[in-house]
Structures are given as structure tokens and as C-alpha cells.
Amino acid sequence: MLTTVKLVFDTFGANVFVPVILFFIALILKVKTQKAFLSALYAGVGLTGFTLLLNSYTPIISKVIKKMVSDTGVNLPVFDIGWQGASLVAYSTQAGMIFLVVAFILQTVLFLIRWTDVFQPSDLWNNYSYMVWGSMCFYVTKNMWLSLLLMCLLNMYSLLLSDSIAQRWSTYYGYPRTTIIALHNLEPAIFGILMDPVWNKLGINKIKLSPEYLQEKLGFLGEPISLGFFLGFLLGILGNFKHLGELASWGQITQVAIATSAIMAIFPKIAGIFAQAFAPLSQAASRSIRKSNKAKGSENQAEGKKPRLWFLGVNDPVGFGETATLITGILLIPIMVVLAILLPGNKVLPVIDLLAIPYWIEGLIALSNGNMVKTMINSVIWFSLGLYMCTATAPLFTHIASSGIGVAIPTAALMVTSFNILGKPFFGLIFYAFLSQNIFWIGLTIVLYLVLWAAFQKNKDAFRAYLERAAAKNATAATDN
Questions:
Q1: Average pLDDT, stretch 346-360?
Q2: Tens digits of per-residue pLDDT, 326-352?
Q3: Of 86, 249, 346, 386, which cross-links 418 as Cys (Cβ 3.0–4.6 Å)?
């Protein structure tokens, strides 16, 4: 059965799964069949557009990143094989395959009983993030129940985080009633929420650096298409700085520049198509709420009930090419390479997952309302801690990746990791609590979740309003000061 489930999902993928789920949700909300079909089709076309665009861009820019890393001449023993390699590992383990079915049931039930306002099963693919941690736990403890509990708890933590930033993400990126739900791309938002008051005290929210500000000050040079060109040109130079006297290097530099410019120009158009998928859904949900309020107004008021605001989980590529997200993410690529070299005790050479950085910072960008400086500071600190978590978990991940699964370890590398999946300080600590098999530490992680969940449920509206006010401070400061 597990093999069949995996085969079905691999065959159709997110580009088909999301539209199908969206179609049935629309019908449940009493959207006319024709509109529901078009809504689903727009979602499929948008997701396919994102995939085609990023699949064309990735090979161009990844070559430059690899050259930039190799030209440093640094020999770090842990090689980053990327989230693609990590997903292969996850879907090839016994613990991972069992959780694939458990996750679908868990995520659906939690949404139906209103434990969460986020419908996660629309993005089944990204469950591999939980599966990697659970597989490593099973390798050490040989306890499948403990490993499943770990994966379920990580899933519930990520759902809580997704729920908390859902409205902010949806507002910033302009996709009604949607949010990201991938564990590995949500976690940095924890640090962003905690540190935001600190950065505001230091006045970082007042620093004028946003795509809008650049466009205002630089004119046509500040247009996203121009910024993309110069950003790609800079990255190309950094990747070829030892070969600037070669014609081939300049060919690669200009190709990266044009390709990055193309992302900036084309991505918003695809995003517009994707956003159209959710308009009928949002309108139908609003009508349903108004009708419910009218029919049960007195009853709801007496019982203190409020209409439900829920969000559909979507894959992170829908936010990858947003201007502030892509610019900040690409600028962080050379910064993280330098930090990997300089940080004492780090053994990880980030390579493949460097291009995924724009995915990781979507929560940070949304929380700061596009404040690129604040996002870069948060990212540098949190991702540096992530390098240490990758260093610590590399022996375990290398074992499950190489024994029985057949992931090849690159020449000159002693161990492998995935910077994107395993570079998660907070969730890594939860993993180590389970790895200890100590009931106190395991119980502490469960109690912490329940306390945070209860606090959020009690103050949900107030917390979401707080995030909106915090985001507005960035926008106001950038405009008024």
C-alpha cells in the first residue's frame, strides 16, 4: 500500500494534486462547477509555470555557485547534496514511507477538528522533511513508535508556525487564503518573530532598503528587471573571479545576468495567474461567512463563536521570485559561503542548497514586510546556527543516505548533508531530545508544543494583528523617515 501511495504521488505530483484538491474544496464551498474547474486549472497552470521557470533557471545559476564554492579552495569534509538528495533518502526509508500515510491522516484530521486553520495535505510532497528526521531517529533508536511520534510532533510544530504566520504571508505575497507549510522553509520565521522587537529597538526597521525604495531612487535601474540583471551579473562575477580573463567566463556571467533578469520579469506574471485560482475560493468563503453570520448571528454572539478563517497550504516556489525575496536570497549565497569558511567548528560546505535560500526566507520577508536588511541579519545568524546543526547530524544522515539507499558521496567528501533540510536549529533540538530517549526531554518538547498551541488558540486574532502591526512599522519607517 505504501509503495502504491508513493507511486501515485510521484506520478501526478503537486502540479496535479493541488488543482484536484482545490477543485473539490471549491465545490464544497458551493462554487459553480465551471468556476471551480477554471480555478483548479489556473492553479495547475501557475504551479507548472513556476516549475518550468525554476527548472530552467536552476541549471544556469547552479553552475556559477559550484564554481564559486570550488574556487575558494577550502576542503570541508561535509558536502551539501541538496534537498533533492534528502528527499530521495526520505522516500526510501521504512520510517519515511510509513509516515507518508500517517501524515495524510494526521494533517486532514487536525484541519477537520479545527486544531489548525491550515489545510496541509495540498502539499504532500514536502512531508519528506519530517521523514528525514524520523529516519535518523529510527536508525539510532530502532524504535518505530518513537520515530513516528517525533515526525508527528515536528509536523504539529510546523503547522502551528504556519498557522501563526499564514495571514501575514498571504497578505504580503498576495495569494488569498494561502500559506506555506514546509517544515524546512518555515523554521527561520521563529527567529524572525522573536528578534523583531530587538531589531526595531536598534532602528533597523528604519533603514531604507526595499525594492520599492530602490526603484524610487534609481529610476529605471531600480526596476525589478534591471535589479535582476545587475544582481545576476554580480553573482556571475563572484563565481568567475579567478577566470575573468577568459571569454567563456564572460559568456556565463552575462547568461546568469539575463536569466536572473528574466526571473524578475516573468515570475510576477505567473504569480498573477496562480493568484486567480484563489479568487473564487476567497469570494465563496466570504459569502459563506456572511450567510453564517446572518443565520446564526445571535447564536454565535451568545456563544462567542467567530467565523473560521482558514488557509490552503501551497508549495514555496509561489513566493521564490518575489522581488525582495529573490534579491535578498541571492545576496545571501556568497555570504553563507564565506561564513561556512570562517565559522570555527563548522565542517559543512554548502553547495546545492544555496539556490534554495529564497525559499527559506519567505517567512522572514513577509514578517518584515520586505525589509531586506532585517531579513539578511536574521538569516545570517540563524543559517550560521544551521551549519552547526548540519555538522552535528552529518554522521547519521550519511549513514542512512549511503547504506541501502545508494546516494553517492562526492569525491573528497567524508560525509553528506542537506543544508536546507538539516540546517534547522530549533527542530534539531527536538530531534536530539527524542534521540536521547529520555522521557523528561521528550515530555518537555510535547509540553512546550501544547503550551504554545493553547496560547496561540486563545490569542489567535491578537497575535495575527500584532504581526500586521509589526510589519506595518517597517513600511511606515521606510516611507516616512
A1: 84
A2: 889 888 888 888 898 889 999 888 877
A3: 86
Confirm if 158 and 458 have CB atoms less than 8 A apart.
Answer: no
d(CA 191, CA 292): 38
pLDDT of residue 70: 72
Residue 78 · residue 52 · CB < 8 Å = no
CB atoms within 10 A of CB 394: 24
DSSP-assigned states of every residue in 443-473: HHHHHHHHHHHHHHHHTHHHHHHHHHHHHHH
Using the predicted structure, report yes or no on whether residue 259 has a pLDDT greater than 60. Answer: yes
Ramachandran assignment for 177, one of left (phi > 0), alpha (psi -120 to 50 degrees), beta (any other): left
Listed in sequence order, the residues at least 6 apart from 29 whose beta carbon sits closer than 8 Å to its beta carbon are 281, 284, 285, 288
Spatial separation of the C-alpha atoms in residues 160 and 35, rounded to whole Å: 32
- 3-state DSSP: the chain helix, strand, coil percent, rounded to 5? 80, 5, 20
Strands (E), 55-124: 78-80, 118-119
Is pLDDT of 404 > 60?
A: no
C-alpha span between 292 and 128 (Å, rounded): 38
Contact criterion met (CB below 8 Å) for 434 and 146: yes
* Angle between helices 323-342 and 224-239 in degrees, nearest 10: 20
| Full DSSP string of 313-362 | EE-THHHHTSHHHHHHHHHHHHHHHHHHHHSTT--EE--GGGGGHHHHTH
Is there a contact between 168 and 464 (Cβ–Cβ < 8 Å)?
yes
Is the CB of residue 80 less than 8 Å from the CB of residue 418?
yes
| Distance between CA atoms of residues 111 and 399, nearest Å | 36
Q: Is 473 exposed, middle or buried (0-12, 13-18, 19+ CB in 10 A)?
A: middle
CA 350 to chain centroid, in Å, comes to 18
Distance between CA atoms of residues 372 and 350, nearest Å: 22
Answer yes or no: are the C-beta atoms of 191 and 465 closer than 8 Å: no
CA distance 292 to 70: 61
